[in-house]
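Project standup — Tuesday

K.O.: blocked on the structure for the chain from last sprint. Re-posting the sequence here as requested.
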Amino acid sequence: MTRYSKSTRKRKKKVAKQISESALNIQREAKRRCPVDTGALRNSITVDFYGDMSAQIGPHMPYAQYVEFGTRKMRAQPYLFPAYEEEKPRLMEGIEKAIKEATE
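H.V.: unblocked you, prediction finished:
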């Protein structure tokens, strides 16, 4: 078992909290941006957490990639990547702040 110092545990906890908050923000924004026909695609956008420091956000419909990126017959209607791009600065700033506060 690995033992971490108090400051390392504190830093890890703050970073994990920021990752969790940002993942939920991305999910919320992707659902807001998602084009709706039946609502199935929007409702399939979930967040899966893997440990404290990792989250996967995305839809579970087989046609999701065609909506996001388009096809030769259908224009792209991006919803997930723009949601990520919007949250990315807050995520990075939050991680940097968490690390800085925990080391002070």
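K.O.: great, moving the ticket to review. Helices lie at 6-33, 40-43, 64-69, 80-103. The chain has a mean pLDDT of 92.
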